[in-house]
Amino acid sequence: MTRAFAEARQAQQRGEVPVGAVIVRGSKILTSAGNQSLRDADPTAHAEMLVIRAACRELDSERLNDCDLYVTLEPCAMCAGAISFARLRRVYFAAYDPKGGAVENGGRFFAQPTCHHAPEVYGGIRESEGADLLRSFFKERR
Question: Mind listing the pLDDT tens digit for each residue in 3-13?
Fold first, then answer.
């Protein structure tokens, strides 16, 4: 999670919403990234999507069965869908997102009967740090 927060801070320095993500296999970090939606002019360039794509390339597989995702914010519906299709084993996230989250909030993607694969989910890890990072980012923008 420490690396995910470092990625989130780097995203913030670029003017992006400060969300960072890491995919781990065993004890090895396969890939890490922060949001890049503004830089890439791509609404799908969320940190989670970027690390899923990179890990799949690294492993030459569309499945990440034995991999875990660490992310600084509860994933949205788009990212939850990608997590499910990639078959990630576990998701660890920091801050809950009552407005845009889709894991513990909103549509609760993994609890839906149409969800193909539901990873183990652990939320609230370093929650206040994640929430503070986002709060300070949006406070500066107002």
Answer: 999 999 999 99
Q: Is 2 exposed, middle or buried (0-12, 13-18, 19+ CB in 10 A)?
A: exposed
95 within 8 A of 130, measured Cβ to Cβ = yes
Q: How far apart are the first and last CA of the chain?
A: 28
Count each helix (H run) and each strand (E run) in the chain, helices first.
5, 5
Find, among 116, 58, 127, the residue nearest to 92 by Cα. 127
Does the global pTM surpass 0.90?
Answer: yes
CB atoms within 10 A of CB 15: 12
Element of type H or E holding 91: strand 90-95
Instruction: Read off φ and ψ for residue 25, nearest 5 degrees.
Output: -125, 115
Residues assigned a catalytic role: 48
Residue type, 141: R
37 φ/ψ angles, rounded to the nearest 5 degrees: -60, -40
| Count of alpha carbons within 13 angstroms of residue 128, beta-carbon side | 0
